[in-house]
Design a protein that fits this description.
It is a single chain. With 198 residues, the chain is an alpha+beta fold. Helix content is 22%, strand content 43%. Strands 1, 6, 7, 8, 10 and 11 form a six-stranded mixed β-sheet that branches. It is elongated and about 50 Å long.
């Protein structure tokens, strides 16, 4: 004899089906919600620590080649956190183009630098120095770098000695915009881009 299910049984079945649907919904939605919360909770990228120099290396070959050197950062906030704003910094990303690299010298074609400041900053001139500390080139430049970034290719086309220091280098000058800070925070700074043979 077929008997009709009791109201309690029907209710229990409905509850079980609802629980299963809720479980499937939770399995899909909760990880997505978690990912959204994690993404929105991430802090903004912080400035790199103060390291106002880059040490690149070039292999001893005759062919023209590019050298991606480490980033240099001038961070006034890192140096004086009590008086210089948290956006008072600049990071500079260098790429050298060289050829005829020997133990003693290199033909230096150019240095491309991408400037990324924490605030609008003025990019000034620069100096190319050989390994004996002698200036072999002075380069005038004047431009504003915004937080969106600015790229400048410094063209040299010079054969430069690695000298007694076993490296040559370029100094790039910059000055952050003044946002009401003391002069210590807004003076001109120089970043050094070294290149040595390996």
């Amino acid at each position: 004899m077929i008997t009709a299910p009791s109201q309690a049984g029907v209710a229990a079945g409905s509850t079980n089906r609802g629980a299963r649907r809720l479980g499937r919904w939770a399995a899909v939605f909760v990880p997505v919600l978690g990912a959204i919360l994690v993404a929105t909770a991430q802090p903004a990228a912080a400035a790199s620590p103060h390291r106002p120099y880059s040490e690149g290396t070039a292999q001893r070959v005759a062919a023209v080649r590019t050298v991606l050197a480490p980033t240099a950062t001038f961070n006034n906030h890192d140096l004086n956190p009590q008086i210089c704003g948290s956006n008072n910094w600049i990071s500079e990303y260098p790429t050298w183009t060289v050829s005829n690299v020997t133990a003693n010298s290199a033909r230096v074609h150019s240095l491309k630098i991408t400037y990324r400041p924490g605030r609008t900053s003025h990019i000034g001139g620069g100096y190319l120095i050989n390994g004996n500390g002698t200036q072999v080139g002075s380069y005038f430049h004047s431009a504003e770098a915004t937080t969106a970034g600015y790229t400048k290719t410094w063209t040299f086309n010079k054969t430069v000695s690695f000298g007694s220091q076993d490296r040559l280098y370029f100094i790039s000058n910059y000055r952050p915009s003044n946002q009401g800070e003391p002069a210590l925070c807004t003076g001109e700074g120089g970043l050094y881009f070294y290149l040595r043979p390996i």
